[in-house]
Design a protein that fits this description.
Elements: E1 2-9, E2 12-18, E3 25-27, H1 39-50, H2 55-66, H3 72-91, E4 100-110, E5 113-122, E6 128-134, H4 139-152, E7 159-162, H5 167-176, E8 178-180, E9 183-185, E10 188-190, H6 201-217, H7 223-240, H8 250-253, H9 263-271
Helix pairs in contact: 1-2, 1-3, 1-9, 2-3, 3-7, 3-9, 4-5
């Protein structure tokens, strides 16, 4: 393969290549083959959106800064598609977490219907292990978010802090109980109040950040879309935005790689990586 000049389209300049063996000419899109737009701009759209800009403001940025007219629906399509890919890539890498987890749920609006948004966070790394959207918050819903958290890490907590919701003790006992010399131990700890020394304010602050972001979104168009976009938010929170108290990202603190550079661009590059045509496709693999 050798360089074969550049091609200009409305999104910018794209490098072209020539295969010396078969004479085939192609452009390098690094996993973005079915998208006519520049991968750099797709990554920029996700970065701006998860930093708090609305779809219309993201579109206005591209119009003013890049002379590129995009509809909010196009940007929304990018965000949904690549949020899912990025989350799958991140979920394929086990995080290393500590002995103390925090769990909480809050109410969000999906197409005019209230739903529950669940989060599980590791206290040491601030890594957001799992998000989950459900219509109810019974035992099965509580166990569902715990199973997602367990799948994100090989580690298990000895303390799990929650509010006073009735389903937490039983769900945590069934999913996270561990054996000690004295027998089976349920790691559940109920937080009596926000002023308690063992407060749940780590994850409550996260909910404040999420609510600020959701307010810009003006609700979600359905439960499935809400789940996908909150997974995109989880990638941004863990892998892109440095945490103030850590001085680094929660992902790095939990042992995940530092992708470096323009982080959303590098995340999407890894999440959409493919091998040459004719071989088995490998997706979500870090070299």
């Amino acid at each position: 393969m050798i360089g074969y000049g550049n091609r200009r389209n409305k999104t910018g300049i794209i490098s072209r290549y020539l295969c010396k063996t078969c004479g085939h000419r192609f452009v390098a899109r690094e996993g973005f083959e079915k998208r006519r737009s520049d991968p750099e701009k797709i990554a920029l759209a996700l970065d701006l959106y998860f930093r708090g800009l609305s779809l219309r403001k993201v579109a206005d940025h591209f119009d003013q800064a890049h002379g590129l007219k995009l509809s909010p629906s196009t940007i929304y399509d990018w965000i949904r598609r690549y949020s899912a890919l990025a989350a799958k890539w991140m979920n394929a890498m086990p995080a290393r977490t500590g002995e103390r987890w925090h769990i909480d749920e809050t109410v969000i609006n999906t197409d005019g219907t209230p739903q529950y948004l669940w989060n599980v966070m590791d206290a040491d790394s601030r890594f957001l292990m799992a998000t989950h959207v459900s219509h109810l918050r019974g035992l099965s819903d509580t166990r569902a978010i715990l199973r997602k958290a367990k799948a994100a890490t090989p580690d298990r907590p000895t303390e799990v802090y929650t509010d006073g919701m009735r389903s937490y003790p039983k769900a945590i006992g069934r999913e996270l109980a561990y054996r000690s010399r004295s027998g089976l131990v349920n790691p559940h700890i109920r937080v009596p109040s926000i002023r308690s020394k063992t407060s749940n304010n780590l994850i409550e602050r996260l909910h404040g950040t999420e609510k600020d972001r959701i307010r810009v979104m003006r609700g979600f168009n359905g439960k499935r879309t809400a789940a996908t976009l909150m997974e995109g938010f989880r990638v941004h929170y863990n892998m892109v935005q440095p945490h103030r108290s850590l001085g680094t990202t929660p992902g790095i603190a939990a042992g995940l790689p530092d992708v470096g550079g323009f982080r959303w661009r590098e995340i999407l590059k890894q999440a959409t990586r493919r091998v040459p045509s004719g071989q088995v496709e490998l997706v979500f693999v870090i070299e």
